[in-house]
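Support case: magnesium ion complex. Customer-provided input:
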Amino acid sequence: MTAFQDLEPMLTRLKLTAIRDRLDNLLDEAAQQELNLREALAFLCQAEVEHKDQRRIAMGLSVARFPAVRTLESFEFEAQPAVDPKQIRELAASRWVAHGDTVLLQGPPGVGKTHLAIALGREAITRGYSVLFTTAINLVANLAKAQGEGRLEERLSYYSGPKLLVVDELGYLSFDAGAGNLFFQLVSRRYEKGAILITSNRSVGEWGEIFGDNVIATAILDRLLHHSQVITIKGESYRLKEKRRSGLIKTALVEGIEKS
Ligand code: ADP
Ligand code: MG
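Agent response - structure generated as follows:
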């Protein structure tokens, strides 16, 4: 019989670590299922591919810096009739990410904008795209800081790197002068290359107020809206609805909060 090299060092060298670490179990199972050689090889490769996919996704999720775990499976579409499940499923396929398009989720607080933004970000990661999550305030503060330190270029590259940039909570706090310019530089840099998902409590008509400058807001929107889907979520806050359902808050009080 031909003398072969030891299998384990070869598997290590080929970086087939999932096969290496579970070799005995995998071979036993292949034998039990009476797989032929070709099937056994496919069975081993599948174990390796699944392991590598899982690791890639775990890594992608950790670099994305999502503030919480939110998934499409945990989004109750029945509770939010303003959201079209079909449109969200389409977005989950992440073709818009591949094309470098824009998705704008707008609506009042608590309607699920951040939930959907994170969930769509996760879907993009499982399909192999790099994602970074940030809030609008953090994004602009970091760009302004970098500018002050003469490192704006570096920071713009950092935010231009990921295939999808999620910018949460645009418009909750108004920006200082100069923010619009920085945001514009980033949007121009990413234009038609990287996708952007923005959540906002303000409609696009109010972006001039957010940036304190209509000209810059128009220039930003011109690029963002060129290839875009705008999803407007109406309705009441999911948080308050939950509380009401559980009887924690009396209906009258909730209505008072929602009107204020
Ligand atoms: P927004 O970003 O629009 O202010 P969030 O996405 O933060 O709102 O939603 C508030 C909370 O309610 C979150 O914990 C979110 O997971 C939950 N939530 C909102 N809408 C839904 C929904 N339709 N199904 C399940 N959970 C929801
Ligand atoms: Mg939010």
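The mean pLDDT is 93.

Case will auto-close in a few days if no follow-up is received.
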